[in-house]
Amino acid sequence: MKSSFLFALSFKSAFLAYGLALSPAAAQMITTPSEVKGGTYVVEPGHTQVGFSVLHLGFTNYSGVFSDVSGTLELDPKKPSASKLNVTIPIASVQTTSAKLTDELKSAQWFDAAQFANATFTSTKVELTGKNTATVTGTLTLHGVTKPTVLAVHFIAAGINPLDKKYTVGFEATGTIKRSDYDVKTYLPLIGDQVQLKIAGAFEHQD
C-alpha cells in the first residue's frame, strides 16, 4: 500500500514537472508582435493546417483539411508591411472524415490532384489592422487558376518550442473564396460556392 502511494506521488510529481516544462510561462512565450525575432522562417508542416468548410445541401457546414504545407515567411516585426509569405499546399494531402469523399476530392471531378498537384499562396501586401492582427493580400493559385485573395491574420505567439528547441512563431488566418472562381463547380448550387478558410500556421526561424 505504501509503495503504491509513493509510486502515485512520484508519478504525479513527474507529470506536473512535465506540464510545467511545456507551459507557456516556462517557454517564455512572446505575445507582442514587435518583440518577435525577425528574419526568414520556414513552415513547420507538422502543426500547420489549411482547413476549409462549405455548406452541404443547405444542412451542414462540412469541413476538411489540407496538410504537408511548405513555404517561407520573411518576417519584419519592425516594419510588418515589408513581410512576405509564400506557401505551397499539396492537393493530395486533402482529408475529410469520409474516405470516399477524400478520394473524390482528389479526382478530376473536383481538385484534380493529378493535373494540379499544388495550390500556392503568395502575399502581395501586408497591412496592420490592430495590435495583433493584419490583413494579408495575395494571389491564390488553385486548380490552375490564379485569383487575388485576402486573409485576416491573427498573431498568436512566438518563442522557443519546448520539444524541438526551435524558435517558432504561430498565426491563425481566416478568409473566404468562391470555388467557382477556380473552376471547381461540381454540384453547384447543391453544395455551396463560398468556401470558408481557417488556417493554423506554424513557422520555424532559420538561424
TrEMBL record:
It holds the Pfam family YceI. Residues 1-27 form the signal peptide. Transmembrane segments: none annotated. SMART domains: YceI. InterPro entries: Lipid/polyisoprenoid-bd_YceI, TTHA0802/YceI-like_sf. Residues 40-204 form the Lipid/polyisoprenoid-binding YceI-like domain. It comes from the Bacteria. The keyword NAD does not apply. Keywords: Signal. Coiled coil: none annotated. This is YceI family protein. It comes from Beijerinckia indica subsp. indica (strain ATCC 9039 / DSM 1715 / NCIMB 8712). The lineage of its organism: Bacteria, Pseudomonadati, Pseudomonadota, Alphaproteobacteria, Hyphomicrobiales.
